[in-house]
Amino acid sequence: MRAGASPRARAGRSRPVAGTLALVAACTMTLVSCGSDNGGGGPSTPSTERPTAPDTASFSGTPPSAMSSAEASARAAASSRAASASAAASSFEASVSAETERANRAAQSELKDVKAPGNAMSEVTMTGKPRAQTGGLLAVVVTITNKSGKKASYAVQVDFLDSSGKAVETRYVGAEDLAPGEKAQPVAVSRKPPQPVLTPKLVKAQRY
Asked: Would you put residue 136 in left (φ > 0), alpha (ψ -120 to 50) or beta?
């Protein structure tokens, strides 16, 4: 019968087993520590990331609020320009009317029974006036020159024609008591809107 192992032999065999158990325990603790390291030592909880605001510096275009402000400013500027142009047109027309209204009424009355073209077409010319000076109105300067040998008055009819050649507006201007060689430059102004564009035409010119 074989005697049992000595205590030294049993101790030698138990060392590998003890070392293995210690290694397993150490790995287990490492895994638990890695999986549960939440700063508080408690059980791990799912991580929730707080959303961050987008970097607007990388966006293109204009922010809605800025766009609305720009649009409002543009509309206000356009409205101001329209009001200014309307005031300029009214001012220009008033100045012309104040100077020539009586002569224009006399011209219209004088031309009532005159057949075109009248007896003074060679003494009358027309020149367009820049709209920048008339508040956007269509206006022509009618130059009347007394080429006769005595004092005379003049009556002139100007029609404004559309693209088909139809007269859509008629204006009368005149000059009274011009001495021989003297010149007058009344202005015929259309009251029609800028569009469609009209063309002025000298229809009658009468010396009386």
From this structure: left
Q: Are 162 and 154 in contact (CB under 8 A)?
A: no
Confidence at 31, pLDDT banded by 50, 70, 90: very low
Over residues 48-105, the pLDDT tens digits come to: 556 665 565 555 555 555 556 777 777 777 666 666 666 666 676 666 665 567 888 8
Compute the chain's Rg from CA coordinates. Answer: 50
Cis peptide bond N-terminal to 200, omega within 30: no
User: In 10 A of CB 16, how many CB atoms?
Assistant: 9
β strands within 6-138, DSSP E: 124-129
pTM of the entire predicted model? 0.55
Q: How many other β-carbons are positioned within 10 Å of the β-carbon of residue 159?
A: 21
| 186 CB-near residues (< 8 Å, 6+ apart) | 99, 100, 103, 104, 141, 142, 144, 156, 173, 174, 175
Place of tokens 């820049």: 130
